[in-house]
Structure formats: C-alpha cells, structure tokens
C-alpha cells in the first residue's frame, strides 16, 4: 500500500475512524467515572543525628544522618507507624492495615531529607496522613533507638489537594480514543485483506491484466426504468461519454468496429453498459447497431420497449431478411436488432459462420455493439468473442468476485479474444468507496450541476421539446 492509498483509505473511512475515536474516548471517560477518586498529598522532613539542627548540615548531610534516613524509609509504611497514626488521629476513618498501603517515602537527592506521600479517598485524609506520618515515624524511631539523639523533624507540611490524582481522566480519555482509532484501523485492514470482491481499479487490473476502459456511477438514472430518459443526469452522461471516448482511442490507427459486451456473472449490468454505449455512439453521429445476442435472457427489446418477437434468431435461421428485423430507435443513428424467438441451441447459433458473417457485414456500415450472456455460466460469449474486434468486460463494485473476473479474462485469452478493457459499473458517488476505490465521482462530477447550471438544464429540455414537436409535425 502506497502513501496515496493510505490517504485515500483514511479519507473514505474518516467517518468510521471518527466514530471509533469518539466511542473510545467516551469509554475512557466512563471508565474514569467508575473509578474511585484518590487524593494525594506529601510532606517533607529531615533526619538529624546528635545536636546538629542546621538545615545546611541536613542538605550537605552527614553520612550518619543519610544512613539513618535511608534506613527509616521502610518504617514509614510499617505497622507500628500506622498504629501510631491511628492513635494520633482516631477519627481518620482508616484502619492501620489500610494506612500501610497508602504511604510511600523517598529521599530527596543525596541528602537526609525525607519525603512522604500519602493517598486517601478524601483530600483532608490525605493531608492528615502525610503530616502525621512524619511525627509518627519520629516516635517509632525514638522508641527503637531508645534515645532522642536521632530525630525526624518536619520541614514542609502537607497541603490540602485541590483535585484527585487518580483517576487521570484526561489520560484515560486519550488512551480510549487511541484504542478506538487503532481498532477501527485494524478492522479496515482486516476487511481489505479478506475482501474477495472487486473494490479498486488495482483489483481489476490485477485480475484481468488490462486497464479500466470506463466507470459508470451508481445512480437511479442508469436503472432500467430511467435508462432512456437520463439526459439531465450530467454525472452518468459524462461517464458514458468518457467510455465512448476511451473506446475510440483504444486503437487510433485501427479503431474497433464491432465490440462484444459481457461480464463474468449475471446481474453485473452488461446490458446497461451496452445500451448506454450504443446510445452515446449514435448521439455522436456514428451509425450504431445494438445486437441482443443474449438468447437466453434477452433484455434489449424490453429496455427500448419494442417488439422483440422477430430478431436475430430468425435472421440466422434464414426465416426473415436482416432489414425486416432491424429497428431504428426514434430518428437517431441507433439501430436495434432484438434477440427474437429464444432458441433451444443458443451456443450453436452464436458460434455459427452465419453469425460471424452477420457481424462482419454490419460492421462495414455500423459500429456494432453485441450484448451477450455472461462468460462463466455459458459458452456463448466465448464462441462469439473471436468474431468481433474487441471485448468489453463489465464488473460491479462490491459484487463481482476477483477470482471470477480473473477466470473470465482467462477464458477470453484462451479463445484468442481481444480484451480491450473493463467497465466498472455501479461505482459509489459518495461515501464509502468514492475516492478510495479510485473512481472519484463525488470529486470530479459533483460540480457538474453548477457548471452546466439550471439554465443549461432548462435549455436542454426546451431543445428536446422542440425536436419532439418537429417530429410530430
């Protein structure tokens, strides 16, 4: 994964990363609320030996005082000191055993200064513990030493803590947010690692060893109901025009005159692609004929709302002339050859010399677009693929499996077909996938409505209305 891929992935999954971070932060905050509050306070004293009482002596410290101070550290959290603290503060609300676990002591640098830190559930108890611990330690020391030559003298009294030292809410919130972010990243990478469906341009390129010829967005305007009335949808129209342009530049010196459109599995939008491409070619002024060679589940007649009872099968069987079966779509340069009656032997018909001759004959006058069944379920597309100048393979984002797309490309290669490119269908307009998947419709085509403007849309409608009125006359 490149840096650019990572940036795209972060941008596309920004919503989920943000949600994970917020949930983690809230969990960290909730954890802090459930934890008991602990207050900390500290007091400082120094150890003297003999008659020395000067602070300078304490800081420079005699070796005897330092040794004594070091040996007294363990006494601070001992049972005798805890008992003495309870004796001096009977209302402290803690037992001697509890007090032992709430006191720690340390030496301040290379000196005889002792620092005692106390923790408690209230600020008052923490302050009392810290202050009393020094005098209690001195009492226990004198009892052990049997004299008053060794003293623990308080130097800095403990203050009343203003805020709890634990739980550290800020740290818990940050840790929770970081954990949530890491978990979302882990889920994203795991999903990417185990995903077997086509998601990116790279997936298509690796599976088919060819490039992407075009991408069609996921929009209602390309549904069967709206396919023939989507002239105002600039996003889908621009995508189709881009596909048309790319097809023309596949081979500048010898552009394809006949193209077969298929897919690896059913339901991936091959008929939508073939219909859209044929219409776009015809609108550019190029005579185009769309042949419905899907003799198992023909759809072209239904899409264009024409009678498909007479068509390709009758022409191949010699029952009707080609001119009788071909229909012109409105007054455009688009001509249609529906499937006709569904035969019992579709593969034999499509693989016949008559079919090859028909495609060759039509390609001398038209740009021929042939819609055929998917490659993996039946052999129709493989049989006919060598009779055309090129094959367009259709894949659908989130539906087509990588292994199926790879197998379809291998089948075309085995029969010597010219795979000129892949059309990626139903690419996301926005949200998950729009730029990470490398299609970027939201970024590139999102502004077309403002570019063309409302006036342009109205003008387009007026022009079409004028054309209809002229035809009606």
TrEMBL record:
Keywords, in A-Z order: ATP-binding, Kinase, Membrane, Nucleotide-binding, Transferase, Transmembrane, Transmembrane helix, Tyrosine-protein kinase
An example Gene Ontology molecular-function term: identical protein binding
Membrane-spanning ranges: 16-34, 171-190
Any one Pfam family match given in the protein's UniProt record, by short name: ParA
UniProt-listed Enzyme Commission number(s): 2.7.10.2
Leading EC class: transferase
SUPFAM superfamilies, sorted: P-loop containing nucleoside triphosphate hydrolases
Family: Belongs to the CpsD/CapB family.
Record's protein name: non-specific protein-tyrosine kinase
Species name: Rothia amarae
